[in-house]
Specification:
Low-confidence stretches: none
Mean pLDDT: 93
Strand content: under 5%
Oligomer: single chain
CATH topology of one domain: Tetracycline Repressor, domain 2
Radius of gyration: 19 Å
Largest sheet: none
Number of helices: 9
């Protein structure tokens, strides 16, 4: 007879995402996962594999549920610079207030951890960066079409700058930077891109 699971793997994985997101991969042991999910080790190993397999699955879930929807919304928003302003405002709010305050971004956290040496994790991080950068670039192309961008602005370089700024917001918020300070930095960056047309 096939093995019948007496738990919901999807719910368990969501719990694991939150655990790795809050604590990081290095600081999270398999016993932490057992405690958080209420599952025994054999069930975890049979369903997800070892800790590294579980972390990979959790990071993929985070990207799919948290990062990619935000990137799609930004790329589809036809307002230009106001769309970028709102993207960063929402990012800062999520990082500084509410349930996930001071957790940072699971992807940004992975960039700074030993887990980034895993080729599969590195590939996922590179894909995430490209998607973030592409969404920024799409928004800037729209901004240019609306006359919101300075005449000498290099849209590719500006997209790279804003992608790096997003990582900075994530990392600095985890370290305790306040929302007002982060917002000032974002405003300065967007103003430099918009020139006199900046919001």
């Amino acid at each position: 007879m096939p093995d019948i699971k007496h738990f919901d793997p999807d719910t368990a994985l969501e719990t694991v995402v939150r655990l790795f997101w809050r604590q990081g991969a290095t600081s999270t042991g398999i016993q932490d996962v057992v405690t958080a999910t209420g599952l025994n080790r054999s069930s975890l190993y049979a369903t997800f594999g070892g800790k590294q397999d579980l972390y990979r699955a959790a990071l993929r879930r985070y990207v799919e549920r948290h990062s990619q929807p935000a990137f799609r919304r930004l790329a589809a928003d036809e307002r230009g610079l106001p769309a970028l302003t709102d993207f960063f405002a929402a990012l800062i709010e999520a990082r500084c207030t509410g349930e996930y305050a001071r957790w940072g971004c699971m992807v940004a956290n992975a960039h700074t951890g030993a887990e980034s040496s895993d080729p599969e994790i590195r590939s996922l991080l590179d894909q995430h960066h490209q998607q973030l950068r592409d969404a920024m670039h799409t928004a800037l192309v729209t901004a240019e079409a609306h006359g919101q961008v300075g005449p000498d602005t290099d849209l590719g370089a500006a997209a790279d700058l804003l992608a790096l700024l997003a990582y900075g917001v994530n990392l600095r918020s985890r370290a305790g930077a306040d929302a007002r300070t982060l917002s000032r930095s974002v405003t300065a960056a967007l103003s430099s891109i918009g020139g006199r047309a900046a919001p």
